[in-house]
Amino acid sequence: MKKSKILLVDDDKNICILLDLYLRQDGHTVIFAHDGQAAIKAFQKENPDLVVLDLMLPIMDGWEVLKYIRQESQVPVIMLTAVDACEDKVTGLDLGANDYVVKPFDPREVAARVRAHLRKQIPPQKDDLAEVLTAGNLVVNSKSYEVVCGGKPVELTPKEFQLLEYMLLNRNIVLSRDQILESVWGYDYFGETRTVDMHIKRLRQKLKSSGSWQIRTIYGIGYKFEV
């Protein structure tokens, strides 16, 4: 994977030092900012590939920094928060955050999430589009539209297949219902997010997990294909 430039924004310098260690082990360049105003200046100057952004910051909070970033760029943003509140997560995702990590956290998890989001930024090669997607006992052929689970073929509707493929491509990433609607149904879909829940329910009924993967419900937000 291409080594990237990460903007790390947190007023807790101990957290910055710890995350810096793990991110640099992956070969990334890390730029620090310890308040919201400094974060915006660093973002303007450095043009990072990904931002790890604390919510509670001096001078300007993480919400305002996130709003600014989304006006300028679609660079991935992973929010850090000390409060595991559904309202904060929903607000962050609605404002354009890509992911959430609650403190205290294992720095290895943050580093893994950084790698996952950076992989999503790599444009797929033509040959990659025909690859078979696998997770445990689940095999999805994106070219032939065939699905095999536990060694048995599974019949899916076109929309169910698109939903499963999208979740597999974004495995271990929390996806909001709105994100799923926009990506699978398209921006011109004006139905309710409940249709996502219905299709997830059908996928669960048709697919029998081996235990090595699951479609996990993230309360108040959406779903995650967890491997």
UniProtKB/TrEMBL annotation:
<feature type="modified residue" description="4-aspartylphosphate">
    <location>
        <position position="54"/>
    </location>
</feature>
<dbReference type="GO" id="GO:0032993">
    <property type="term" value="C:protein-DNA complex"/>
</dbReference>
<feature type="domain" description="Response regulatory">
    <location>
        <begin position="5"/>
        <end position="118"/>
    </location>
</feature>
<dbReference type="GO" id="GO:0006355">
    <property type="term" value="P:regulation of DNA-templated transcription"/>
</dbReference>
<dbReference type="GO" id="GO:0005829">
    <property type="term" value="C:cytosol"/>
</dbReference>
<dbReference type="GO" id="GO:0000156">
    <property type="term" value="F:phosphorelay response regulator activity"/>
</dbReference>
<dbReference type="InterPro" id="IPR011006">
    <property type="entry name" value="CheY-like_superfamily"/>
</dbReference>
<comment type="function">
    <text>May play the central regulatory role in sporulation. It may be an element of the effector pathway responsible for the activation of sporulation genes in response to nutritional stress. Spo0A may act in concert with spo0H (a sigma factor) to control the expression of some genes that are critical to the sporulation process.</text>
</comment>
<protein>
    <recommendedName>
        <fullName>Stage 0 sporulation protein A homolog</fullName>
    </recommendedName>
</protein>
<keyword id="KW-0902">Two-component regulatory system</keyword>
<keyword id="KW-0805">Transcription regulation</keyword>
<dbReference type="InterPro" id="IPR001867">
    <property type="entry name" value="OmpR/PhoB-type_DNA-bd"/>
</dbReference>
<dbReference type="InterPro" id="IPR001789">
    <property type="entry name" value="Sig_transdc_resp-reg_receiver"/>
</dbReference>
<feature type="DNA-binding region" description="OmpR/PhoB-type">
    <location>
        <begin position="130"/>
        <end position="227"/>
    </location>
</feature>
<dbReference type="InterPro" id="IPR039420">
    <property type="entry name" value="WalR-like"/>
</dbReference>
<keyword id="KW-0804">Transcription</keyword>
<dbReference type="GO" id="GO:0000976">
    <property type="term" value="F:transcription cis-regulatory region binding"/>
</dbReference>
<feature type="domain" description="OmpR/PhoB-type">
    <location>
        <begin position="130"/>
        <end position="227"/>
    </location>
</feature>
<dbReference type="Pfam" id="PF00486">
    <property type="entry name" value="Trans_reg_C"/>
</dbReference>
<keyword id="KW-0238">DNA-binding</keyword>
<keyword id="KW-0597">Phosphoprotein</keyword>
<dbReference type="InterPro" id="IPR036388">
    <property type="entry name" value="WH-like_DNA-bd_sf"/>
</dbReference>
<dbReference type="Pfam" id="PF00072">
    <property type="entry name" value="Response_reg"/>
</dbReference>
